[in-house]
What does this fold into?
Amino acid sequence: MSGCYLDTSALAKWYVEEPGSEAFEAFVNATPERRISRLVTVELRSLLARRRRAGEVDVDYETNAWATFTTHVAAGVFAVEPIPDARFNEARELIDALPDIPLRTLDALHLAAARAMDAGTVATADIVMRTAAEVLGLKVEFFGTERR
It folds into this structure.
């Protein structure tokens, strides 16, 4: 296993200043094999729009953050994994395999993608995602808080 799968909760810290952004930036800059799924592109776009609507960022900030991300994707900063039908089956199987973890749909898809990409590490700021990844035997770089 190699590379690090970056879920949206962690990757957002590279584009939106929030607690943990500095630590994540240092981590991601030191990580040569950065992997994301196509799901991240939709989730990050949604996150930026949601933060603008909530008044946390203005439209210029949102536009610049999105432009920077799409430039990074186009430049190959990340290896981007598509989400074929098989990942949906794997995500469902993960939910069944982890009955005591409140794994949400999109987090299960992230984990299925990370495993398909043979990522040895998952970077997340989500406590449930961290727990599930650890149970699955993945190394976790955690950038969130301990609270849920």
Summary: The chain has a mean pLDDT of 95. The longest strand covers residues 34-37. Strands lie at 4-6, 34-37, 79-81, 121-124, 139-142.
